[in-house]
Amino acid sequence: MDCTIDYIKSWLKEHLNEERYEHSLGTADCAKMLAEKYGVDSEKAYFTGLIHDCAKCLDWEETEKILHYIQLEEGEFENPKTHHAPVGAFLAAKEFGVEDSEVLSAIRWHTIGKLEMSLFEKIIFLADKIETRTRPVEYREPITKLLDEENGLDKALLLCYANTIKSLVDRKLTICTATIDIYNELLRKTSLYYAR
């Protein structure tokens, strides 16, 4: 992580559209706040939040080239909208010289997540969903309210997954098995606290 924040912001401004750039700034701020709340390296969280969507606006041809170097999970083939996450981890290593495996993994899994996410991965995943610059308040607020409860981070993640599953069902889109598995894992983890 030798790149300066100013260089990264300049690079992102050039390679992302305006809304995605604002989202990246919002995710960075939210990741830093969550990291401070949960005792994780806040500067690393800010950096990761800032670059998590670095591949979001790549054209399909460039994305496809990079995908040849990446092993996708079975469910990821079904939804090209998630491809920017593994491609982003690849790009973060190549463009910004990121070698920290925790940072790269958090970028890699910030869209669909994975079973047994680390605390850092959960923070980046959630920051992407609840940042205040581009995410609507009616979506954010029910999730953020859960953070002050016991086991609040997992409860917030569970609600994110519940919202995603509902949205996919409403739109008659396929749901990758990983999403169901993660939802079930979080439900089990929060079952002692979560009102059914």
Task: Produce a short descriptive summary.
The chain has 196 residues and is mainly α.
Record the SSE blueprint.
Layout: H1 5-15, H2 18-38, H3 42-51, H4 60-67, H5 84-96, H6 101-108, H7 119-130, H8 137-146, H9 152-170, H10 177-190
Detailed description of the structure:
- This protein has 196 residues and is mostly helical.
- The protein has a single domain, classed as Hypothetical protein af1432 (Orthogonal Bundle).
- Helices cover 64% and strands 0% of the residues.
- Helix 6 crosses helix 7.
- The longest helix has 21 residues.
- The protein starts with a helix and ends in a 6-residue tail after the last helix.
- Termini separation comes to 43 Å
CATH topology grouping = Hypothetical protein af1432
The geometry reads as globular
Biggest sheet layout: none
CATH architecture tag: Orthogonal Bundle
Supply the CATH class: Mainly Alpha
Radius of gyration (CA) equals 16 Å
Which bin fits the share of residues in helices? 55-70%
CATH superfamily: Hypothetical protein af1432
Extended strand count: 0
Mean pLDDT: 92
**Percent strand:** under 5%
Low-confidence stretches are none
Classification by helices and strands: mainly alpha
**What is the element string, with H for helices and E for strands?**
HHHHHHHHHH
